[in-house]
Design goal:
The chain has 243 residues and is of the alpha/beta class. It has a single domain, classed as Aldolase class I (TIM Barrel). It has 11 helices and 8 strands.
Amino acid sequence: MIRLHINIDHVATLRNQRDTDYPDPAEAARLCMSAGASGITMHLREDRRHIRDADVWRVKEILAGGVLNLEMASTQEMSDIMALLAPHTVTLVPERREERTTEGGLDLSVGREALARLTARAAQVGTRVSVFIEPSLEQVRLARELGAVQVEFHTGHYCSAAQSEQPALLGVFVQAAELAHSLGLEVAAGHGLTALNVGPIAALPHMAELNIGHSVISDAVFHGLGGAVRRLQAAITAATVVG
């Protein structure tokens, strides 16, 4: 079974639009888990545009030992928060203030010393390290050298590509996934995935985890949050269960 982690950032985005105390990301986390999610993903950005510090601590309390995947940049501030919070997993992502959303994978050849320090610190508090990268063989090898236990492939370019281009892109994912598995790395994916396009990504070899958020929060408008999670889980199951 592929683990489905729901990213609840955009529950906080909606709340912050009016600076109210609702909708509550912590309650969203509870509902997602009740609907069958395997874990919760949150991106604590430098500018706190959606998730805020208090949200992270409240969600960790609600999960009560369940899987909290904290997405973050490899900065000293975030390293300090990670060391105090000790989430189940941290996913290292690129971050620019001017971007609307994450625009691509992290280049692990840049700032390797800082990444290595953060990875070592995570190990000290019992936190797994995942890296959000493009499906590049070089980046997969660097992830292994860094000491990550998981690679999460950026699927945004695939999701936005013309249908005629997608088979070739899937081939790139297959090669990267096979290499990651051979190096002992778990394979995950995320960004731009919906109940309509998740099938081919879910069916990639060695896929262990999917992190999906925006489409779930969007679908919740029509199906309710629990219904949106179950709809996505059904699409994943349909793509991966062999008759």
